[in-house]
Amino acid sequence: MKKSISRLSALAGSLVLITSLAACSGSNAAGSPEADFPTRDVTMLVPYAAGGPTDISARALATEMEKELDTTVIVENRPGASGITGLSEASSAKPDGYTMVFSTDDSFVQSVKRTTPYSFESFDAVGGIFTQPYVIVVPSNSEVSSVEDLKSSGPLNYAVTGWANPTHVNQAAIFGELGIKATAIPFDGAAPASQALIGGQTDVAMLDAQAVMPYIKNKDLKALAVLTADGQRLDYLPDVETFEEAGLPVDNQTLTMYGIAVPAGTDDAVVKTIKDAANTARESENFTKLSEDNYMPLLSEEDAANWYDLLQKKSASTVKVMEQFNITVE
After folding, report:
1. Structural domain boundaries enclosing 103
2. How far apart are CA 32 and CA 54, in angstroms?
3. 77 in the same domain as 101
4. 34-45: per-residue pLDDT in tens?
């Protein structure tokens, strides 16, 4: 009888121990760093200089994300080497969600254009935010008034905002497919490229809408066609045809999209927390107004979710065009 009681006591003790361990395990899971994220400030790296469109957008987005994450989102600029400096730092950060990067797609594509410390596999995508449409423009006094006129033009000099960047690669593909002899003239950004076009130093340019809209409104430049994410005309340029309508090549064109990524290996729950905050932030009244005021439409829900996949697919066509037209980078 005493042995039976002893065995029952031992069994009861074992059950208590198992229950205690299970309770401790549940408590640890609920109190894990991932479950509690965020418990401190979050850093958003921007691989471009302060004051530019990427920086301004990042700070506006960060302000809205703070409301959702209930913590401070610190924006830090890491300019240099076409975005490589900032993305290199972001890729080597601890994958705990406390470091994210907000950037245009060109900085990610650098990894297929040249040797970089990171690749597409170095990051986990959070999601896309908005896009930067491109507009083909000519001087207001140009005899070219449509894409059809452009197709029949002679040798052209076209402005690009940097060697081997999207404005260069895109235009090389366009003029190559149209059989137009054209020479790229590089400038340090969209503003000097626009001024050179207005001054007659170049004949045509494909530039981002944010940069050229003030000149179009002032009638210094005229728009021939627009490249958009959804293939639809822009609300603020309703009379300007799309690339598709104008019969211009689209498949090998790269459209600038802005998005957020974190170092690869970040916990799924943390990524979801950041993604939910970013989606709510980008649809907020303040951020929506920013996108409208700067002529940068928000990505559709589908494109925002698939932003990183779209980016990787487009990078392959970018490399192909560069090889075809012998566009090299250092």
Report:
1. 39-131+256-324
2. 34
3. yes
4. 678 999 999 999
